[in-house]
Amino acid sequence: MTALLVTGGAGFIGGAIVADALKRGWQVRVLDSLRNDIHGSAPEVDGRVDLLVGDVRDAAVVDAALDGIDVVSHQAAKVGLGVSLADAPDYTDTNVTGTAVLLAGMAARGIGRLVVASSMVVYGEGAYRDAHGPVRPGPRSVADLDAGRFDPVGADGEPLHPELIDEDAPLDPRNVYALSKLAQEHLAAAWARSTGGRAVALRYHNVYGPGMPQNTPYAGVASLFRSALERGEAPRVFEDGRQRRDFVHVRDVASANLAALHALDSMSPGSFRPFNVGSGMVHTIGEMAAALSAAAGGPAPVPTGEYRLGDVRHITASSERIERELGWRATTAFDEGVREFATAPLRSAVSPEAVRA
What we know:
With about 350 residues, the protein is α/β, with parallel strands linked by helices. Helix content is about 35%, strand content about 20%. It has helices spanning about 10-25, 60-65, 90-110, 140-145, 175-195, 220-230, 250-265, 285-295, 320-325, 335-340, 350-355, and strands at about 5, 25-30, 50-55, 70-75, 115-120, 125-130, 135, 160-165, 200-205, 205-210, 235, 245, 245-250, 270-275, 285, 300-305, 315. The strands form five sheets. A seven-stranded parallel sheet has the order 3-2-1-4-5-9-14, sandwiched between helices. Helix 3 (about 90-110) packs parallel to helix 5 (about 175-195), helix 6 (about 220-230) packs parallel to helix 8 and helix 8 packs across helix 10. The longest helix is centred in the first third of the chain and has 22 residues, at about 90-110.
């Protein structure tokens, strides 16, 4: 029986991976810090799981968690854009140092198989094309954003045409969270080369589904819309709501992780491979808000024109590589997933004091 460690396994995505692994008969251990700015109350964990409460930055805790383990799914991370630059030390310490401690522990114990949670944010802006071919625009200017000019433009001043982005695109992280996710990828690749291990990075696109965080500043946009609707408020949509995204259901993300874990044995020693994990369908943020409002019978969303400098305009995934190489594809249709999510339970609310801590 395969023994799997899931770091962050009491969280939103980690919990879905644990549930999928248990269904497949795997032996599962979870290492989770149960941070109170992420978990409003102690989450329910399946009784078949060996739960170890501790911090992935603590080498002694990590060593205990790795005892008897065959393969690791590293989901523990601080996620989201953050509130301000004051979050930067926590992002780098949690995501970068935590990953380094985990990899050092795996090397010491001779554990050679790893799947690490990465993100679409490592790309920066998505893929675009102008009349002459592919273009990668730079960050949007404050002047353009203040004037409501949200779409990147080409040298001729015309809006660029967004396309699906693949794993060979240049990486261009544009905020501290994105930098920390790319650092996790680089650490995993360096670990694989130096130990002969095998590593996969899954670049999640916009994950949604039951069990999302409810009210933290780091929650995904779909969760923020859901929480507004539960309060009887209209979802507030930044910019004009036409930002293109790929919304992928959490159950599909879990199955992508299991596919990647199975595929590690067939990889060459010392290899590292990134994969996009998306639904393969493009929807705007405004469409997600409107679909949730309709499914919940709530007020229509309101585009606010507000923006965040760290946000990108359009980022949508090509998931051809993961389907071709791992045989995985998403199976949850957008309409089906949104209808379920509109009334599905979220995680317990986090207190304002915990968020500020």
